[in-house]
Design goal:
Number of domains: 1
Number of helices: 16
Strand order of the largest sheet: 1-3-4-5-7-8-9-10
Strand content: 15-25%
Oligomer: single chain
CATH class: Alpha Beta
Structural class: alpha/beta
Order of helices and strands: HHHHHHEEHEHEHEHEHHEHEHEHEHEEE
Length: 386
C-alpha cells in the first residue's frame, strides 16, 4: 500500500476552501485552467466555478478534443447484474435500505448464471455484479463463486459491493474479478454521517480507502464516484478528482474510471438536498475530462435517454444499457424491489443503434485475459481505453 492512504491525507476543509476561492475565478482563470489541464486544486476549482458555467462551450470543446485524443470515438457498453437487495445498512437515499418494505431477494448462483446468460444474449461481455450489504447472504464465498461462474460467460467481470479488506479482494481476483467499483457516495464526512445511519457502511474512512486495498490486491480496474445530490456538487467534484489523482499515483498499475450519478426516485421517497441541474452536470463532466484526461468516464441509465445522447461527446467512455436494478431483473423482472428508478429504458440494441447514428463505435468486449506469455504473465488486451 502507499505510505499515506487517501483517507489519511484527505482534508475536507481544504477542498471547501479551494471551492470558495474558485468562486472568485474569472474567465482568464478558467482559460488558464483549461490550458494547464487543471494541474492543481485551485485550477480545478476554477473549472467548477460560476465563471466557468458561462463558458460551457469552451469547456465542451476542450473536453471533446481530449476525449478523442485518448479514447477515439468508442463507447464501452456494460450491464449491472444485481445479486441481492437484502441489506443490513440504513442509508436514507437507497431503495435497498434496511427497514424499507420491498420484496427482498438474494439470487442463487444458478440464478446469477441465468441472468448472465440473458445479458450475453444481448451481446454483453462486460458485467458488473452489484449487491447490497448483508454479511450472511452476500459473503466472500458466495461472491467469489458468483464471480467465477459469471467469468465463464463474460470476459470482463467487476464488482460493486461492500468495501472489503485486502485478503477478500485477493480472493475475488483469484476467482476472476477484473474491476471494483465503489462510490464514496459523498466526500463530506458530516453529510456522510447524516445519510448512513446504521450498518457497516457507516465507516467513512474504511470505505474511502477500499479502492486502494483492491488495487494492491491485484484488481486492474478501479471505479471511483460520488452520488450527486447529497452535498454541494462543486465540493464533490473537486474531492473526486483529488481522490482519482491519488489513486493514479498510489495504484498506478490500475486503470481508474469515474462516475457521478444523480440521485433519482427510489423506495422511501428521498429527495436530494442539493439537486444538480443538467447544465451543472455538463460542467462537471467537462471539468473531470480536462483534469483527468486518461480516466474513463461512466454514464449510467439514471440519466434520460436524450440527455445521455447529448453528453456522449463531452468525455463519456463507458455506458450501461438495458439495465435492471433488481435481483433477477433480466430473466424475471418485477420479482424483487429495485434500487432506483431508471430514466433511460431503451434496449441495448436501441442504444447501440443510436451511438452509431452519433458516429460512435459501441464496444461490448473491451478486455480479455489471454493465454500466459513466455514471462508467465497474462497478456492483457484493452480496447477503447477501458
Amino acid at each position: 500500500m502507499s505510505v499515506v492512504s487517501f483517507a489519511e491525507r484527505f482534508t475536507p476543509v481544504t477542498i471547501r476552501d479551494a471551492v470558495t476561492r474558485g468562486a472568485r475565478a474569472g474567465a482568464s482563470d478558467v482559460r488558464a485552467a483549461i490550458a494547464s489541464g487543471a494541474s492543481d486544486a485551485g485550477a480545478v476549482a476554477a473549472l467548477l466555478s460560476p465563471a466557468a458555467a458561462g463558458m460551457l462551450e469552451e469547456l465542451a470543446q476542450a473536453a471533446h478534443r481530449l476525449t478523442l485524443q485518448r479514447f477515439g470515438k468508442t463507447i464501452a457498453l456494460y450491464a449491472p447484474l444485481y445479486l441481492s437487495n437484502d441489506c443490513v445498512c440504513t442509508c436514507t437515499y437507497c431503495g435497498f435500505s434496511m427497514g424499507l418494505d420491498i420484496r427482498r431477494k438474494t439470487l442463487r448462483v444458478d440464478e446469477v448464471v441465468r441472468e448472465a446468460r440473458a445479458l450475453g444474449d444481448h451481446g454483453f461481455r462486460n458485467i458488473l455484479l452489484v449487491s447490497s450489504e448483508h454479511p450472511k447472504h452476500v459473503n466472500m464465498g458466495y461472491v467469489a463463486q458468483c464471480v467465477g461462474e459469471t467469468k465463464r460467460l463474460a470476459q470482463y467481470v467487476a464488482l460493486e459491493i461492500a468495501a472489503a479488506d485486502m485478503p477478500e479482494y485477493e480472493t475475488y481476483v483469484a476467482a476472476g474479478c477484473d474491476g471494483v467499483v465503489l462510490y464514496q457516495e459523498t466526500y463530506d464526512p458530516d453529510v456522510y454521517a447524516r445519510h448512513h445511519l446504521g450498518g457497516p457502511k457507516k465507516k467513512f474512512a474504511w470505505r474511502l480507502d477500499a479502492l486502494e486495498r483492491a488495487a494492491h490486491a491485484g484488481v486492474r480496474h478501479l471505479g471511483a464516484g460520488a452520488l450527486l445530490g447529497l452535498a454541494d456538487w462543486r465540493f464533490e467534484g473537486l474531492a473526486l478528482i483529488e481522490h482519482v489523482r491519488h489513486l493514479q499515483r498510489s495504484a498506478w498499475r490500475s486503470q481508474v474510471n469515474v462516475s457521478f450519478p444523480r440521485i433519482n426516485a427510489a423506495a422511501g421517497g428521498f429527495s436530494p438536498e442539493n439537486p444538480v441541474s443538467d447544465a451543472q452536470l455538463v460542467q462537471l463532466i467537462c471539468a473531470l475530462r480536462i483534469a483527468l484526461p486518461t480516466a474513463g468516464i461512466v454514464l449510467s441509465t439514471r440519466e434520460a435517454a436524450a440527455l445521455r445522447d447529448r453528453l456522449v461527446p463531452l468525455g463519456i467512455t463507458h455506458m450501461s444499457a438495458g439495465s435492471r436494478t433488481e435481483p433477477g431483473g433480466y430473466s424475471e423482472p418485477g420479482a424483487a424491489g429495485e434500487q432506483f428508478h431508471l430514466e433511460d429504458t431503451r434496449s441495448p440494441a436501441h442504444v447501440v443503434r443510436r451511438l452509431r447514428e452519433l458516429g460512435y463505435d459501441p464496444v461490448f468486449k473491451d478486455w480479455e485475459n489471454m493465454a500466459p506469455g513466455t514471462d508467465s504473465q497474462a497478456v492483457v488486451v484493452e480496447a477503447a481505453g477501458a
